[in-house]
Amino acid sequence: MFAHAPVIFAALGGPTHLVEGANQAFLDTVGVEQATEVSGRPVAEVVPELVHQGLLPVLDSVYRQGEPFVAHGVGVLLGPAGKTRLRYFDFSLEPRRDQAGRVRGVAFVAVDVTRQRAAHKLAAEQQVLLEQIARDAPLAEVLDGMCRAIEKLSPKVLGSVLLLDQTGTRLLHGAAPSLPDFYTEAIDGSEIGPREGSCGTAAYRREMVVVNDIATDPLWTDYRDLAARAGLGACWSAPIVSSAGELLGTFAMYHRTPQTLREEDLDLSIVFTRTAALAIERNRTELARREAHEREHALSSDLEFVLRTSTAVSEEARYPHNLQRLAELAVPALGPVCVIDVIESGRVRRVAVALAAELPAGARALLTTEEAGDVENGPVGRVLATGASEVSRAVPGGAWRELGVDITGQVCVPLTARGRTFGALTVVATTQHPLGARAIALAEELARTAAAGAETTRQHAQQAQLAHDLQAGLLLAALPEVPGAHLAAFYRPAGEGLDIGGDFYDAFPLPGDRWGLVMGDVCGRGAYAATTTALVRTTIRAVAPLLPTPDAVVGAVNHALLARADSDESFVTLIYAELHRTRDGVAVRMVRAGHPPPLLCRTDGTVACPNPAGRLLGVSPELGLGTELFTLRHGDDLVLVTDGILEARSPAGTLFGEERLVAALRPTARLADARRILDAVTTAVDGFTGGVTDDDQAALVLVSG
């Protein structure tokens, strides 16, 4: 019944326990080939190693007392000295009886549970490792624990894990707690190939490689001396492969002496290779997640930086102050030094320099005054010409070499808006502030985003300067010295001053010790208003010396306006007065053509409003002008304003109006100072409006003196 069963069976007889019969499993267990080798011999002779392990007294007890004996998981050392192996058994000893019921021997029945016991231990160790993996323990900790678990389950084994590098061509150290340090250091980074020891070959073949004797195996030719120095005799290595079939590394089991692969060791290799694959895959997934999170965080941080910087540049309305602000915000986020160069009138001009606090104090002056030729012939000139970024790992020349800073490279990126490159932003790197790919990309994005706002501000500044220059050409560069009187004038363009306004004033000498005084306002803004203003001023100056009366002069201006082909597109309001010094002060002859009336302020504090009637100019040949005559006595003043003063609005929308203007002038009686009177007017208007105006404002004050 037990002849070919996996259960171990032997029939023992007599008090010396002679082997009367045994199955093949028994013979295999005790290490003999034929039943004749054990038949009729005492079990103590067949398996002498049992004598000192307590089994014979148990057999004696069952034989004498006739009571069966059962035991589980009993460890038994089998084999001669030097080749002893530990096995575990579940066994039972049953008394064998004759027909009379007397005990004549013992039946030995056992089951080898060594592998089951090892499997339980293996499962327990694997469970610990799986728990470590589940709580995201560091990969090195998991792999180290795995090697130690293997060495605990198979005490003669030395475990090792190597990990595939990013190139897929080499194996890097993962864990090897019991191997010598010099050995793990030597094989760290070893190549994958067909004759690269057990591990490199296993990775190359994608299959388990068993080397029972390192000293003679050709796979170890290049590593044999190293293995001998480490005292290694055998190595079995298996590839660690992901669930998708991707190579992750290798798992190796070393022995100090040549060994043949056992079934138990193969079980260990299979289980722990799978566990290692799970740990490595989990670690890779976690690293990928963290890297993705870090990239997302970096992208969010970079985007916030770009938006914040671009907003700051856009909010700085003055050019090139906004580019200086851009350079300052780029340091030290992008690098320790940032300069910005722009093209102006065909030449390159440096408009911004920013440096980290730790740089030498004189660095700013050196960079600010860098020779234009050095700039134009270097990366800046090329970037301005091509509109493409330029990255260099070379140290820039010129003033940069005099900074006393260890510069390791630079990036120069274009400032491009509306398809035109108008400037270049340069950031340098030092050994303390290296220039990485992220900084380069961030510099390009920052320049691209900030360029539009900077260029808009630059164009506004140029347009405002052009408008200012043209407006200055339409106004007096300086008021003349009028005998017997003092003059002061004020002009403020609407908004940002980007368009030429239509408000103007003038004072010029006439024959006979007379003077002409003009205050006017052309409807509209821009070039048409400028040409109309020029026409009015030129006409007045041309005809005033020739015509006898102010109304005749204004009539000539009206005729000139109506004579234009586009006369229906504009009209003009105007006050023209002729002044003549007398013994009592200044005699005034005045006409008003649709313009706000002037204010006559006497020294006694009264304010009068000379009001000669008249229509707008440029509308009709009939003006209906009237001339008013009056005298400014010593200390009296005459104040002329445009409608931008009277129609200035408070934040609530209320008009400033004539009453507030009169109220502002009353305290100035007896001042006899044209500038201080003018300041009183502008202060009152600014206080009322908060300094904000949507129309041009002009005022002219004449004080008799």
TrEMBL record:
This protein's UniProt keywords: Hydrolase
Transmembrane regions listed in the UniProt entry: none
Pfam families, per database record: GAF_2 (PF13185), PAS_4 (PF08448), SpoIIE (PF07228)
An annotated Gene Ontology molecular function: phosphatase activity
Hydrolase among keywords: yes
Gene3D superfamilies: 3.30.450.40, PAS domain, PPM-type phosphatase domain
GAF domain location: 134-290, 318-464
PANTHER family hit by this protein: STAGE II SPORULATION PROTEIN E (PTHR43156:SF2), STAGE II SPORULATION PROTEIN E-RELATED (PTHR43156)
Protein name from the UniProt record: Guanylate cyclase
Organism: Streptacidiphilus pinicola
